[in-house]
Amino acid sequence: MTVATAPTKKVRLPLHGVLLLDKSAGHSSNDVLIKAKRLLNAQKAGHTGTLDPFATGLLPLCFGEATKFAQDLLDASKTYEAVVHLGIVTATGDTEGEVLQVRDVNITSAHIDEALARFRGDIRQVPPMYSALKRDGKPLYEYARAGITLEREARAVTIHSLDCIDYKAPYLSIRVSCSKGTYIRVLGEEIGEALGCGGHLQALRRTRVGELSLAGAHTLQSIDATPQEQRAGLLAPVDALLSTFSPLSLTDELARRFLHGQRLALDKENVRLPDRPERMRVYRASDGKLLGTAKLMEFGVLAPERLIVA
């Protein structure tokens, strides 16, 4: 008699680092996260802010200990390239929504320059109904799909730069660098209204998140084509997320105390003290290992924030 045996559970790897993923259109951010995690056979992973399914471009994925620093990318400025289809207004502000209006497009480059100038700097945006923002525990898009429109409070965002890349009627190509919380779909709609013809996003591609860019990014297809034993090597190190933080190295004894969460009074003669609290990336001097992040206070006290335990 043959005795059935339970299937062997696949052992996932404790990978730590950042995968710069070039997301393709037609997939949700969560879908590509799940696929990337499976392709790398990783234990733990998370993304750093979503891209709409129709959007493409940079989606940094954090693995293992890197997930502790994902919030810093959520708070970072982003850069996008977008194509606004002028003259057609849709329910969702992009190509996936029902067409609500079709209007004539009669604009010049001078009109475009004048319209774009209105949106540079600090502006206020009303979040779209077709968004993942929640009201009473339910995302706004669920209300929108049920035909319900709710009042939404305008939010302050900053457009650091906004430029016209190309204009071939009715398609306006723009590049925008903006603060967190900016809805490029809403920006595209508002630019269309400022031009008097309306519009919606035909295409959207994210090219930069903080200091991270598409340079060296991987697609799911290129990861799949990489031999399994080499895929872990596609991850950038954890401190790729912390390049804007000043580095600080500690002796073995101070490193041990730091990893126990203790505040450290540093030797002020050997450490440049900041004028105000400054965030640091902290290493152990003897082996260069990243220990985590901390705030260095004006009076020379190092206060641990997020620690790496792996």
Summary keywords:
five-stranded mixed sheet; globular; 310 residues; nine-stranded mixed sheet; alpha+beta; 18% helix; 7 helices; single chain
Characterise the protein shown here.
The chain has 310 residues and is α+β, with helices and mostly antiparallel strands. It contains seven helices and 18 strands. It has helices spanning 29-40, 70-74, 109-117, 140-145, 184-194, 220-225, 252-259; strands at residues 17-23, 45-47, 56-63, 78-86, 88-90, 99-102, 121-125, 134-135, 138-139, 155-168, 171-178, 199-209, 212-213, 246-250, 264-265, 278-284, 290-296, 301-307. Strands 1, 2, 3, 4, 7, 10, 11, 12 and 13 form a nine-stranded mixed sheet that branches. The chain is globular and about 70 Å long. The two termini are 46 Å apart. 33% of the residues are buried. The model has no long low-confidence stretch (mean pLDDT 91).
Itemize the secondary structure elements and their pairings.
Blueprint (H helix, E strand, L loop, with lengths): L16 E7 L5 H12 L4 E3 L8 E8 L6 H5 L3 E9 L1 E3 L8 E4 L6 H9 L3 E5 L8 E2 L2 E2 H6 L9 E14 L2 E8 L5 H11 L4 E11 L2 E2 L6 H6 L20 E5 L1 H8 L4 E2 L12 E7 L5 E7 L4 E7 L3
Parallel strand pairs: 3-12, 14-16
Antiparallel strand pairs: 1-3, 2-3, 4-11, 4-12, 5-6, 7-10, 8-9, 10-11, 12-13, 15-18, 16-17, 17-18
